[in-house]
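BUG: 3D viewer hangs when loading the predicted structure for this chain

Environment: internal workstation, default settings.
Expected: structure renders.
Actual: progress bar stalls at 90%.

Input used:
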Amino acid sequence: MLDYDTEAARYDRTRGGEPRAEAAAGAVLGLLPQSARTLLDIGCGTGLVTRRIAHGRPALRVFGADASYGMARLARQRIGAVALADVRQLPLRTASVDAVSAVWLLHLLRGGGLVREVVAEAARVLRPGGVFVATVDKDAGHDVGSDIDAVLTPYRSSQPADAADLVTGYARARGLEPAGEARFTGHGQGRSPSRTARAVLRGDYASRLALPGEAATRLASELTTLPDPDRPRADPAYRLLAFRACG
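Structure tokens produced before the viewer hung:
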């Protein structure tokens, strides 16, 4: 798992920057009712997407929360209202916001029950009729039919933490019903074999690949033997689901 405190300074420039953030924010906003007045972006990271959401709908009061001090510090510079908080225990009253977003968060939560806890906490802070919007099946979004995908396939974890059916089940158990979906392009996130190999060796894929023993070294070696190792393959397409709080 990445150390997000140390990763914060380079995070945006290595993950698509403003174009990717704009695409994500636009997709989130498209799933929010026009009546929404407050939104909490959990796992907000550096606040790049959060700021775009705020700029995209000026009447919407947007807040952020992240467990990483380094990420929260950068986000606070961009949007002001950011809490350093465990998103399973948000410092908010029950039924206090109109929307909660979780972009590129749930796939990281591989510990037993973590995604269920986050979904439950989002449901708790939503007002009746409020909307929870989250990316799901993130790893599948990177499956663009490339040679990299073929090499990674044997190492993939069997059950991603953000599988759509799991997240939907957790949401329904907390009174959140499906209310729409959207897709958007991860601009600048097309992987090259050499970049993917470096990420594997850094441990960036710990949440999505099973790499016991020397498997990471073996996988990195396989990736670097692919043709055109520095050429990015196609950009991924990410999926968002929206759930509405009953009542």
